[in-house]
Amino acid sequence: MINGLSEMLLCLTFLVLYGFMESQSAQLQVFGPDDYLVAVAGKDLVLPCYIKPSTSVVEMTVRWLKQETKHMLVHLYKDHEDRNEDQAQSYRRRTSLFTEELQKGNASLRLSDLRVSDEGEYTCFIEDESWSDDITFYVTVNALGSHPVIMMESYDNSGGIHLLCESRGWKPEPEVLWLDREGDILPAEDTQIHRDTEGFNVKRSITVHDNSNHNRFYCRLLQEDHMRETEIIINRKVFGAWKWVVGISVLACLIAVGWIITAVILHKKEKQRQKVEYILSDKKKFAELQSRSIEDDLAKMKKFAVDVILDPDTANPFLILSADGKQVTDGDEWQNLPDTPQRFTKHPDVVGKQSFSSGRFYYEVQVRGKTEWDLGVVRENINRKGEIILRPQNGFWTVGLRNENQYKAFAGPSVPLTLREKVEKVGVFVDYEEGLVSFYDVNSRSHIYSFTGQTFTEKLYPFFSPCDNDGGKNSAPLIISPVFNTE
Ligand SMILES: *[C@@H]1O[C@H](CO)[C@@H](O)[C@H](O)[C@H]1NC(C)=O
């Protein structure tokens, strides 16, 4: 019996309490502005939101949202602090609540540095465990656009000048007017309007003619009671200059046509294969054709094949030459040899016995199994004793391999070469009078590199460097191989 009574009392207390809370919550309501807000871009704006009767929102959750295609989080206050991890990127560091006002039930939001893209519907949503309410209102953002810029675009064929006035970032869109110095509106082309996220961009063109000594024109943009204006003054002489401009344009056209004709003639003179290159876009066919044409070239060059033999009197004492003078490798051991002027003593280099001071010549060198090598031709008077920098300026026209796969043309500065395959045999072709030194990959029949337009005045010697032995890694010899004429 006593138990039953106390249970009933407890129950009653809850009912009363619940009823009290319910009635308090029922009275609470969120308020905002009575109408939509109009704000100005660049300024700050307070978005009003508060509860009545005045009750602290310190313990509550305040959520500011913007209605886009979906809700965008503008600001979140929860558990006594701002929780803006999920805030929309465009509102970063631009929102704040008024901390002191929260206890008065004021959850207004300050939004700073307004943009036209901030325009839209905002919702202020306040809730605690037992109650929630919200208010939604619209914010319009107006913007005063940039100062108009006037561009002199062109002359028309009656001596008028075409002017374009342009300005960006207006909201709402402005009226664009062209005026003369008396303030009279001039007839102009239609205004072009283009809208983007930051407002309206406007353009309006006019063609003006010379009519006084002071040709002043104004481009004026009007938006409600705002105005922006730019002036342009055109000197009389400028109006007169159009004839010159036309003259110069005609001349420029004639020169261009001349160029084109020359180019066409030159182009026609080019070899048949280059024509084919243009026609065939198919890469494989192209590569095939190219190697076929290089094959032709190689076949021609092979007619100039010479029998090169290494000159032991020039070989660096580290180098080991075969008895027939066709092979060379770095033996990694200094041999006691007479230090004659023609002997390379610093680098592991050697030249051929034959020299050339005219005509064309060709030879092939096997480089298979090597990680480094240099090949080419050199002038007679090159430095054989000291530090050598391989470059045409120093009398070396060479290409080489470094670190197993880095092919280079030592063109001073050196040029990295991208080759399709590892080179096993190099063909060297020289045309003394043409100033040409070309290198070919004999097996894949592709071109490696060419020095062109060189001037040779001295004897040229075939040049070989098997490079450092590198502890046996680069011990494979360079081999001057016999040239088989495939024809
Ligand atoms: C809320 O706080 C803001 C900022 O201090 C103030 O401008 C606004 O008048 C306040 N609103 C109310 C209803 O007190």
Automatic annotation (TrEMBL):
Q: What Pfam families does UniProt report for this protein, alphabetically?
A: C2-set_3, PRY, SPRY, V-set
Give the UniProt subcellular location, in the record's own words: Membrane
Q: Where is the B30.2/SPRY domain?
A: 288-483
Q: Which GO terms describe its cellular component?
A: external side of plasma membrane
Instruction: Please classify the protein's predominant subcellular localization into one broad category.
Output: membrane
Q: Which residues cross the membrane?
A: 244-266
| Top-level taxon in the UniProt lineage | Eukaryota
Q: Which GO terms of the molecular function aspect are on file?
A: signaling receptor binding
Q: Which residues form the signal peptide?
A: 1-23
Q: Which InterPro entries match?
A: B30.2/SPRY, B30.2/SPRY_sf, BTN3A2-like_Ig-C, Butyrophylin_SPRY, ConA-like_dom_sf, Ig-like_dom, Ig-like_dom_sf, Ig-like_fold
Q: Which CDD domains match?
A: SPRY_PRY_C-I_1
Bilayer disposition of the protein: Single-pass type I membrane protein
Q: Where is the Ig-like domain?
A: 42-136, 148-235
- Cite the entry's keywords alphabetically: Disulfide bond, Glycoprotein, Immunoglobulin domain, Membrane, Signal, Transmembrane, Transmembrane helix
- What Gene Ontology terms for biological process does this UniProt record contain? regulation of cytokine production; regulation of leukocyte cell-cell adhesion; regulation of T cell activation; T cell receptor signaling pathway
Q: Which PROSITE patterns match?
A: B302_SPRY, IG_LIKE
Q: Which family does it belong to?
A: Belongs to the immunoglobulin superfamily. BTN/MOG family.
Q: What is this protein called?
A: Butyrophilin subfamily 1 member A1-like
Organism equals Silurus meridionalis (Southern catfish)
